[in-house]
Amino acid sequence: MRVRHPLTVAVFLTVGATLAGCTAASAEGSAADSNLTIGSVVDVTSWNPADVGGGHFLQYMQPVYDTLLQVDSKGAIEPDLATEWRWDEARTTLTLDLRTGVKFTDGTRFDADAVVANVTSLKAGSGAASSQLRSVKDATAVDDDTVALNLSQPDPALETALTQNAGFMASPKGISAGTLATEPVGTGPYTLDAKTTTVGSEYAFVRNAEYWAPKTYPFDRITIRPLTDDSARRAALQSGAIDAGIGQPAWVKEISSDQLIAMKYTLDFMGLFIDDRAGTLVPALGDVRVRQAINYAFDRAAILKTIQLGYGEETTQVFSKSSIAYDAKLNKVYSYDPDRARKLLKEAGYADGFDLPMPSSDWSAAYDAVVLEQLAAVGIRVKYESIPTTNVLSRLPDFGAHWFGWAMPQNPWVTVTDLIAKDGVGNYQHSTDPEIDALMSEILVTPTEKAGPLYKKLNARVVDQAWFAPWYGVSQVYFHSSSVEVDPPSGVVVPAIKAYRPAS
Amino acid sequence: MLWYTARKLATAIVLVLAVATVTFFMLYGASADPVANLLGQTATPAQIAARRIELGLDRPVIVQYGDWLLNAIQGNLGTSWLNRQPVTDTLILRVPVTLSITIVATIVAAIVGVVVGTMAARWRGWVDHALQVLVIVGFALPAFWLAVVLSTTFAVNLRLFPAIGYISPATSIGGWMSSITLPVVALAAGVSASIAQQIRNSVLDVERRDFVRALRSRGLGSRRILFFHTLRNAAPAGLVVLSLQFIGMLGGAVIIENIFALPGIGSLAIDATNVGDVPVVMGVMLVTVVIVVVVNLALDLIQGVINPKARLR
Amino acid sequence: MSVSTETAAVAVSDASPRQFLRQLARRPMLLGSSLVLMVVVLLALLAPLLTPYDPTKTSLSLVLAPPSAAHPLGGDGVGHDVLARLLWGSGASLMAGAIATGVAVLVGVPAGLIAGYRRGRFDTVSSWFADALLAIPGIVALLVVVSVFGTAITPTMIALGILFAPNFFRLSRATVVQVRKELYIDAAKISGLSATRIVFRHILAVVATPILIQASLTAGVAIIVQSGLAFLGIGNALEPSWGAMVNDAYRNNVAAPQLILWPGLAIGITAAALAIVGSSLSDALNRSGGRFRTARPDRRAQRRQTHEDAVRRAASAADVDGHLVVEGLRVSYPSEAGLREVVRGVSFSVNRGECLGIVGESGSGKSQTAFAVLGLLPSEAVRQADRIQLDGIDLITARERDLDRLRVTRIAYIPQDPMSNLDPVYTIGAQMIETIRAHERVSQRAARARAQELLGQVGIVDPARTLAAYPHEISGGMAQRVLIAIAVSCDPEVVIADEPTTALDVTVQAEVLALLRRLQRERNLAVVLVTHNLGVVADICDRVAVMRDGEIVETADVFTLFRDPQHPYTKELLGSTLSGAEPRTRLLGRASAASRASVETEPEGESS
């Protein structure tokens, strides 16, 4: 044996490549074959709508499940499984007329009883739908194709909720059998194809032959690949292994081309949550002047430009620009002014600054340093505690302030219930304010069309009280191949499945 | 031999139990509560409490442990806290992926290692010097760096191989090969070098032993001595290194699977630890230890075949 | 225990720290990599003086900033000065390596020392624990540790240290087990030293070096593992460490691909330096490993020269006659002080039916002479000779392939230590058959029958069972008979026996000698018997050559030599053998050479 060179590796590479040739070739131009492959940053955790989270998870649900309502490309709410809907006078009952002749893929009929079963299941589950439906007491079947949702108090966010998790309708048979988590059964345009699905790697959906509006969905086959690692997703986009997927601002220059198009839309805001507005954990934060000082301490423009590469829009508000609560004037309240911040701290009795314990984790890694730097410049000494990502959410209530990002949905009531209400999941220290409470009660009994000024007042109060120190709304960068057209989503992080179509 | 195997097997079972127990109490004894994390930032305290009860986390840890153990013995590793999938099913789907890349990488590394190591021992000179350099480079070069470079070069730029994903050999053998090629090369590169180094040293050691001179005195020819005697005597040391490297590769797979988006137990491990999906972490830990134990057992048996002395122990 | 492992152990125990330092100075790679490490440590210590920037302070203007005069390496993704991070980070990364290695040594070494020295239950239990730890895949275990104890470097590295501890445990345990068997420990025991003092004074000195090697590798691995975890996003991003820098670089690898370079180089260079230190240290220990490599002789030139020598001198030397003729044989080895000659111009000849004894002390070059004639010298040895002829065939210029055809068929070899000269992984039968079939076109079955017959001829009672046995299953005496059987299996004319009885029990020695004598007569063999034992010489040799310091000082027939030794050295040898009192005639009359009479007190350990 006289092997002159370690050829083995080379041989292995060549053989693999040759064999790969055919598969790689067939994968390309998949959109043209009426196939769509989407990369997702999350892996589906359950196929049961009652258990699944919002945001990125919606794409996994939408092929299989229809929602009661849906949003069009401009953000307006339109019919889906419910063809018409109306509120009663007190805005505590929402009556929905249901589409007739629709069947679940297991043959079960879709009717008012099915909606009742779903609402019960969704409310009891641990997914995003449960909190979306918190104001819904129960659902009652008015007749075979009419259902009433009975609310404990008015909920201006309910219609939006019914376009997302709270609107997914699963087969009552599947609900009672408890099998939905692994075997989804809905009325949607596609069914999960177990044969070509590899859990954790790719989920394949094939057309539901009996779907009631097949033309809305131009693709014969949809594949969703969970790609949690950024570099894997970038490589997948570049190599054409996926037709679309979420990306990062830094990639735009590097990978966008004629074949790979970047689009952007705003969803989350980033910045500081000044949670301890009562001053229980960090007494200094109990003083509104200190919280305002924090707002004056941040050079939003510089942070946006350097860390976010300019992909975003400065803001001091937690409400979406597209919502009726938004008020452009409020953005001028806190301009970058460290001197003013120091002066406010001095007035509050913290001329020498104070120690501010904050959590640091992999999530906030890119921002921790700048928070430290800019607060230090006005005398606030941030003391970080390093926390594994696993424990971040359960540890947040232990801190007086933290860096975070939060979605800015179009419907302002969602923001109010999440971040501002006393029991809001993002109100970690359960802060209250008499003026805010009064405005919230008033909004509840006011029809949405007329609630604009009230929301703006509420927003102004939150900004003035400096409950948060938002920096900017982040522009989400979404890449798609030139063979696919995509409508940007409104109010959710990724486009809905029906927003994709082959390029003409 | 039978008694020997039985004893090894008993030790292995005790080992698996011990590792499982320690891991269990470490994970459940952790101060922070992962349930909040599982449900995400929009979960209400009531939802969190309800999920805790549903998962049985309100019971004493010792009861949870007993429960887990009883089920585990029957092959039921519980269900994921995150996605409700039975852990056993998930592992059955994912273990083949990890084994595909680690076993193929081990085989590649063994072949390359033996060929290069033997050449280095035989010819010394530049081959030997090159090997020494390669060993150092392979040791110091982080596997993730190599993986990223391979992915950029061969998948993104040249498009010879898929950048991501895994194709089961049941679907397509060619697809399977092309889907694991880059991960295998990334895993095997450093290992090949260190196995080559080990084989080189062992071959040199064996060649210095008396019986090799005795064999030469019988006019057997250097090739026959090399292939039938030297390599076979050098093999046990090489096998030990190979088994250690295999264990190392199971760890390396965590990073490689992440970069190539392979649905193996490595990426499962990192996802599960990131969200605190304890049953899955337990399952991954258990299955990796079982794999290691099985590999070591197999190695012992092979050692017994190669080296008659080992059979006596 | 075989001779080769014994010598290995001696080699280990010889390497005292001071000798070691001397070795270090002679190795450029080792010196260079040690210097690199020292520089890294210095940079870590002097970081506050070398850079004006605080590694935890950021400035937005520095985010992904290109290199500038003020910031020679630019800024990272969050606005740290990269140079400051790199310098300060070296401290954290070195500390990570030090913690992991320290814990591994502190846990593994004491446990290994105790287990190896005391054995018994502690050994069983701790060995089991070591095996258990080795079965745990590192990164998966670390992920668990991180999810329990958080992302700080210290607990992670302590856990890593515990995972590495089995390596140190096994190493120190094995070394102690080996060293324990050596004489000086027993001697220390007898002299009344306490067990702990024995462990610390002697054993620790011996295990120190292998542990140092392992430690340097471990530290390198720990630094790499730390960066791997940081790559996965597990680690403290605020504290400067190379791992944290890798993570930051990876986050920004599109916008600023050069960022990976600095931590990558730092990790790579440090880990490589540690690895080189480790492997150079082990090379230094392993004397026959790297040391001769540079001094390796040019084989072709060497052969050409010896050939010329042979041609030039062949005519003049032709007067010496014999079946095997050796003239002017010189063997030398490269050493630091140039070539060191161990055989200096040895000449002898032997005829069929004759037995020539070559006798001398250990280190006199007699075994080297035997190997040189057979062409079995190690590759680094340099052989020169005026003439080496077997029945007129020139063995100096013969190719290896031709030599292989002569070996065992015409000139055979019987080694010193029977146990180490059989391949342990094949049965006796396989090894005998292999030899027979390598030289004769006979069937497996015929070869087997011949092997069985040969075993019968060398006095083995149950040849069939012996054929099926592995070397470790038979006694030393049997093994030597097997080796003799192999030596004569293809009917050679000349047999060179190198101390064939030294390793055997007294009673067995006599039997083996008797066997040799019988075979010599039956087969009309020319025998060259290398020995240090004058009793053996007296027993079976016809002529004797006395060797000293690589030279033959006197050659005579056996009776003449014993009765009338000419050279003072020969007289001295005879004198020490007979302890003065015993009459020579008694010795000569003895039927066996079973006496322990020998010219040296320690068993001959040289094997090359």
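qc> Chain A touches chain B through 62 residues (CB under 8 Å).
qc> done
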